[in-house]
Amino acid sequence: MGTHTITAEIPMAPRMTEDPAKLVPELADVSAALFKVTGNGSVPRATISLVQLRAGQIAGSTYLTVLHAGFLRAAGESEERIASVSSWQDSPYFTSAERAALALVEAVLQPSVDGERVSDALYAEVAELFEPRALATLMFAIGQVNFFTAVALIAKPVPGRSFSEPWN
Questions:
Q1: Is the C-alpha dihedral spanning 68, 72, 75, 79 positive or negative?
Q2: How close are the terminal C-alpha atoms of the chain, in Å?
Q3: Residue 78: which H helix or E strand, with range?
């Protein structure tokens, strides 16, 4: 397996040459169910998209970062909000609920020096801002992006292409 130098150009072709969704067509049902769950209306779509953008950034996936930034732009989110997701802690552009959701996705996806990733204090703060159904939906939204993170990192679809057509 070769390594890249930091100046090497990255090819604009997926690593996995065949579309995984075509190889495993059962994925369509799983994907549709996940999108239905996260789109149940209990959490604003913008909050879910912000969380999923942050997850793509944490995972180091250009595909997911470009995809979710594009979803936010298409939904009319400001460039300031999109650009400051990676530094949300000191950004004035997010609500308390969005900040709690961003803290939760970071806790889930990043190792903790204290052992437990989601502390009782963080859970209590998030639960204070989200009704039980919304909290469960937020949890599933983090799981959804985590599910697709494996695809993005292993198969390496081309950034900037439609979510349904990264292998074209």
A1: negative
A2: 25
A3: none
Residues 75 and 46: beta-carbon distance below 8 Å: yes
Q: Cα separation of 116 and 118, whole Å?
A: 6
Q: Are 117 and 110 in contact (CB under 8 A)?
A: yes
CB proximity list for 157: less than 8 A, separation 6 or greater: 14, 63, 151, 166, 167
What is residue 53's DSSP assignment?
H
Q: Which of 9, 27, 33 lies closest to 151, judged by CA?
A: 27
Record the pTM.
Answer: 0.87
pLDDT of 10: 67
Residue listed under structure tokens 């052992």? 115
Tens digits of residue pLDDT in 47-61: 999 999 999 999 999
Helix (H, G, I), strand (E, B) or coil at 32: helix
Distance in angstroms (rounded) separating the CA atoms of residues 104 and 94:
14
Mean pLDDT of 73-98: 96
> Rounded to whole angstroms, what are the CA distances from 72 to 1, 51, 124?
36, 11, 28
DSSP state of 90: G
Take residue 65 and report the two structure tokens written for it.
């970062």
